[in-house]
Amino acid sequence: MTEQAGLPDLHFVLVHGACHGAWCWFKIRSLMETSGYKVTCLDLKSAGIDQSNPNTILTFDEYNAPLTHFLSNLPDNEKVILVGHSAGGLSLTDAIHRFAKKIRVAIYVAANMLRHGFSTDQDIKDGEPDVSEYGEVADLEYGMGLDQPPTSIIIKEEFQKRLLYQLSPKEVNFQSTRTRPSITYAVNFDSTFFLAFLSNPAPLIDGFVGLGQDTALASMLLRPGPVRAFKGARFEGGKDADSVPRIYIKTLHDQMLKPMKQEQMIKRWQPCQVLVLDSDHSPFFSTPRLLFDLISKGAAASF
């Protein structure tokens, strides 16, 4: 049993958004595991430590294959709680159409929640970020040639904090909770550190408080996302899709997927519950404990 009294053992599957990877959930994963939950964090194709070239990932089916494979191999008598951030919402919706009977609840965090993906002009209007006010914020690659649409995209480093992480902690203050609190540690972020961190971030969270500079971590780990796959995300209506409870967590200070766009998606495909978080686009960095509490609340409501 988990620490949430009366709840059975819960299995959370955390799905990252564009250009991120399983690594972005490290604070949430640690909080969940400390609370006794089972947690799976996936890297989708060309994300995180998956070495696929994003310029060769041209369909959403290929991009979402790691989640599809995971759910395909899940025992028929087991249900999971899917949590998707940003473009990870497309992955959740795809899973809802394909594997409704294996999903206890789907929780969208500042995420694309479009019943049929980008199937109509209205879907594009509601679901695609509009950051035109900032000018050219992204670097594009044209893996199929300059006469073809771009194949990958990444937010330029100088815009990442402004659009994705503007409320994340600003100062580095690695202080041990196990030894004298006056000691401040310098951490060498080399490749060995990152490999250990990606495989098991919990000791870092458990050992240090005041973890700042999430943006520095992100700038080193963000990778171009397969934009052709995102734009081609379209889903047929699975017969059991509407049987899966959906919860939406709105982020009120979101500069990437603005609250107005989130509200439009909520109105067009109404979830069973809407929760509100006073955060930027990336609450797994800026307000991890509040996000964890809302995810736990949403999971409890699914029983």
UniProtKB/TrEMBL annotation:
> Which InterPro entries does the record cross-reference, listed alphabetically?
AB_hydrolase_1, AB_hydrolase_fold, MES/HNL
A molecular function (GO) held by this record is: methyl indole-3-acetate esterase activity
| Hydrolase recorded as keyword | yes
Name the Gene Ontology biological process terms: jasmonic acid metabolic process; salicylic acid metabolic process
Q: Which domain of life is it from?
A: Eukaryota
Domain (AB hydrolase-1) ranges: 12-293
Q: Which residues form a coiled coil?
A: none
Q: Does the keyword Cytoplasm apply?
A: no
The UniProt keyword set, sorted, is: Hydrolase
Instruction: Report the protein name in the record.
Output: AB hydrolase-1 domain-containing protein
Q: Which organism is it from?
A: Salix brachista
Q: What is the lineage of its organism?
A: Eukaryota, Viridiplantae, Streptophyta, Embryophyta, Tracheophyta
